[in-house]
C-alpha cells in the first residue's frame, strides 16, 4: 500500500472542507458554556510594593485582550474563616463567552507579551478554569 499524507487522506475522505470551517461552526458545543478563568499569582517578593505594582500594571494591559468579557483584579480580602485561602499575592479573574474565546486569549499577542514581560515577578501561578451555563435560573 502506498503511503498517503494526512492532507491527501482528508481530501479523499471528504473531510478537507471541515478544516476551512470556523471553530465555532465545527464545534457548536464549545460555544454554549460560559468559561471562567481564575489565576492566583504568588510573587517571588510578596512584600515588594514595586513588584506588586508592576504585576498590577501588566494585568491592566492584559485586560485589553478583546475576547475578555469581564475582568477582576484583586488581593486577598480581610476575611478569616477556616476555608479561606489567602496565601496568594494577586488574583486575576476573567470571563469569556465560551472556551473558544478563552483559547484565543491564550494565544493572543497581549497575553504572550504579558507572560514574557512579567513572569519574572512570580514564583508560582495556580489556575482554576470552569465552565457552566451562560445563565443560571
From TrEMBL:
<protein>
    <recommendedName>
        <fullName>Stress-response A/B barrel domain-containing protein</fullName>
    </recommendedName>
</protein>
<dbReference type="InterPro" id="IPR011008">
    <property type="entry name" value="Dimeric_a/b-barrel"/>
</dbReference>
<feature type="domain" description="Stress-response A/B barrel">
    <location>
        <begin position="35"/>
        <end position="130"/>
    </location>
</feature>
<dbReference type="InterPro" id="IPR013097">
    <property type="entry name" value="Dabb"/>
</dbReference>
<dbReference type="Pfam" id="PF07876">
    <property type="entry name" value="Dabb"/>
</dbReference>
